[in-house]
Amino acid sequence: MKMSAARAVGVFAVSIVLLFACEPSKATAQRRPSRATARQLVLEAYEPPSQQKRVVATNPSKQVITRTIRDLRWSDITFVVLRLDDRNWIEASGSRSDGFSVKFARNGKERVSESAPTLDEIVALFQSYVANDGRWERMVKWQ
Predict the structure, then answer these.
(1) I want to staple 135 with a disulfide (CB 3.0 to 4.6 A). Which of 4, 58, 70, 128 is the partner?
(2) How far is the C-alpha of 88 from the C-alpha of 13, rounded, in Å?
(3) Cβ neighbours of residue 81 closer than 8 Å, sequence gap 6 or more
(4) What is the pLDDT of residues 77-132, one digit of tens each?
(5) Using CA atoms, how far apart are residues 18 and 123, in angstroms rounded to an integer?
């Protein structure tokens, strides 16, 4: 079947319009987070006596963070970690009798809090870390 030149041009024009209509614009593509840059945080708890890792939640909400930290017994050394990956995380540890400590790692470099935070401060630090707002870095002094 032969196609006239006018019809061929029309089909070509429709193909071009469909191609551009289906392809996302650069502006749209820039607004969507790529899988490589999307943050996937995992909240973990390590409780006595076994200190076995328990995954509490992935990308926890403020409410989950608050409930998890407050519901831990903290009667003996306990850990709670909010982990982006093995080189980037924030961790609180301690007990009610011995006090608490917070440390974090950024690109594998670890820093620890200069003073013992309260449970309320630990909750605020973890919530800020999840929000990725940078406030957690200024909430306590780091060594």
Answers:
(1) 128
(2) 51
(3) 43, 44, 45, 46, 89, 90, 91, 92
(4) 999 999 999 999 999 999 999 999 999 999 999 999 999 999 999 999 999 999 99
(5) 51
Q: Are 126 and 65 in contact (CB under 8 A)?
A: yes
pLDDT band at 39 (very low <50, low <70, confident <90, very high): confident
Q: What is the DSSP string of the chain?
A: ----HHHHHHHHHHHHHHHHHHSPPHHHHHHSPPTTT----EEEEE-TTT--EEEEEES--HHHHHHHHHHS--SS-EEEEEEEETTEEEEEEEETTTEEEEEEEETTEEEEBSSPPPHHHHHHHHHHHHHT-STHHHHS-B-
Cα separations in angstroms, 25 against 14, 15, 81: 18, 17, 39
Q: Do 113 and 140 form a contact (C-beta atoms < 8 A)?
A: yes
Pairwise pLDDT comparison (111 vs 11), residue with the higher score: 111
What is the mean predicted confidence (pLDDT) over 61-82?
97
